[in-house]
Design a protein that fits this description.
This protein is α/β, with parallel strands linked by helices. 26% of the residues lie in helices and 29% in strands. The chain has 10 helices and 18 strands. Helix 7 crosses helix 9 and helix 9 crosses helix 10.
């Protein structure tokens, strides 16, 4: 059975507070772990949340402001200390190459982990496997900034009534699921005849940005949209000037993109009560939650449409 969930390791923007750590977001996607924007204290937050570096396979940096990357040295050094056996892929826009080198070798340590730098030049697919795709798109923050999308390969939902009419059962159904075709009673049956196409689950991570076309593309039809909402609308002008969104902006994005659920994070230190973010977003997009450090949200089942 697949295990897919999102954990907010830190939810503060710019500076940590008494109750919010710097950014850090962990997406568990079956056997693969994606760590987004490890800010200061991320490895400690992972311990509190019950996660280890052995469960991380990809690190994705949206941009190189400190609250989104200053935890990278500790994370990489911990990976070496723990001696993780698999490669650790670090994805980032190639404009940050110099910063990556400084962060990787910020202090003395024995590098044992196999860190694989994966710089990219612009929007597009970063990695595609048989079961999932990781892609990026450009955001609007005043410095090179890119959001990410993880998407499962589409699948099929078999219809029991059609299977019964075709006389298929047990091993034959298993073969149909594996190979897409099965022979029975002198006839060749295909998935398209006995089931319906099912889009794969998807998650988008949209960090520091103004509303923009790249955010819209990343969020299109996702099951879970993890979106910055640094400000409430009473500071709309400041949000625009500093390259950020409000809770209202995030809700409008989720609604326009047809997202299934919206997760608000990256809150300014001026706001003590994150309930106000839900109150602002919910009238526009009801399926919304504002996360606190340590919150875990399981992904719901695949869509039926």
């Amino acid at each position: 059975m697949s295990t897919r969930s999102f954990t907010a390791l830190g939810t503060a923007s710019q500076v940590p507070t008494r109750h919010r750590n710097h950014n850090g977001y962990l997406l568990r996607w079956d056997e693969v772990g994606f760590l987004f924007d490890p800010g200061e204290g991320t490895q400690r937050q992972m311990i509190h949340a019950g996660h280890s570096m052995s469960g991380v396979h990809h690190i994705c940096i949206t941009h190189f402001h400190g609250d989104h990357c200053l935890g990278l040295p500790g994370v990489l050094q911990r990976a070496s200390l723990d001696g993780i056996a698999h490669p650790l892929n670090v994805h980032y826009h190639d404009s940050g190459a110099a910063f990556i080198q400084r962060l990787r070798y910020a202090s003395i340590y024995q590098e044992r982990a196999r860190v694989v730098e994966r710089p990219f030049a612009g929007p597009g697919v970063l990695e595609r496997t048989a079961t999932w795709t990781l892609s990026s798109d450009e955001l609007d923050h005043g410095t090179p900034s890119f959001g990410y999308r993880v998407e499962a390969a589409p699948g099929w939902t078999l219809e029991p009534e059609r299977l019964a009419e075709a006389g298929l059962r047990g091993p034959q159904i298993g073969q149909l699921q594996r190979e897409g075709v099965v022979e029975h009673a002198g006839r060749r049956w295909t998935l398209a005849e006995l089931g319906r196409a099912r889009p794969g689950q998807s998650v988008a991570v949209v960090m520091d940005t103004r509303p923009c076309a790249g955010a819209e593309r990343l969020a299109q039809g996702v099951d879970l949209l993890i979106c910055e909402s640094t400000y409430l609308s009473d500071h709309q002008a400041e949000a625009r000037a500093r390259g950020h969104m409000t809770a209202r902006d995030a809700a409008l994005l989720a609604r326009a993109a047809g997202a299934r659920r919206l997760v608000l994070t990256h809150f300014s230190q001026r706001y003590a009560d994150i309930a106000a973010f839900v109150a602002e977003a919910a009238p526009i997009f009801p399926e919304v939650v504002a996360v606190a450090d340590g919150d875990t949200i399981p992904l719901r089942g695949d869509r039926k449409e």
